[in-house]
Amino acid sequence: MAKDPTTRDARPIVWMIGFLVVAMIVYFGILGWRAFDLIGSGTVAGIGVGIGVLILPFIGAWLIFATLRAGLEHQRLARIMAEEGRELDVSSLPRRASGRIERDAADALFAEVKTEWEADPHNWRNTYRIARAYDYAGDRSRARQMMKRAVAQYHGRES
Predict the structure, then answer these.
(1) Half-sphere exposure of residue 116: CA atoms within 13 angstroms, side-chain side
(2) Start-to-end CA span in the chain (Å)
(3) Which one of 32, 41, 61, 120 is CB 3.0 to 4.6 Å from 46, fit for a cystine?
(4) Vertex 106, ends 103 and 111: CA angle to 5°?
(5) Model pTM?
(6) For 18-73, how does the pLDDT look when each residue is reduced to its tens digit (9 = 90+)?
(7) Is 110:98 a contact under the CB 8 Å cutoff?
(8) Nearest to 75 by CA among 13, 123, 138, 156
(9) Phi-psi region of 138 (alpha: psi -120 to 50; beta: other; left: phi over 0)
(10) Is 1 helix (H, G, I), strand (E, B) or coil?
(11) What element of type H or E holds 129?
(12) How far apart are CA 108 and CA 130, in angstroms?
């Protein structure tokens, strides 16, 4: 079976994510160790700062977990959409020198996908497609919001 030239090898990205997660875990370990040193100092300021520093690794671990979980969920939806042939096809859209889709073409794509979504906003597939259209149009905050909604709809947590 011939390899599709438009698909990229994900291994370098996965390795980089793995490296960064391991680096963060080491950093959190060092932070925790330093927090216990501060708490062990016995001074009021040391104990207060030590407790504050001890909280940081837990917040960081939660952020890593939440980010990785969201990424895996988005990949799951992308895989399903690709298998169903419903992923947005942007291969023929004109691009800037940077590789981004030209603004007018992205806006036209968004208008088309928005019409689909408005017809059935409770379908996670339509919500996924509008999230991708927002991303192509350059509105990353709405893209993230709609992708989060698509994941919730996929899991039946939102109608």
Answers:
(1) 18
(2) 40
(3) 41
(4) 125
(5) 0.75
(6) 999 999 999 999 999 999 999 999 999 999 999 999 999 999 999 999 999 999 99
(7) no
(8) 13
(9) left
(10) coil
(11) helix 124-137
(12) 12
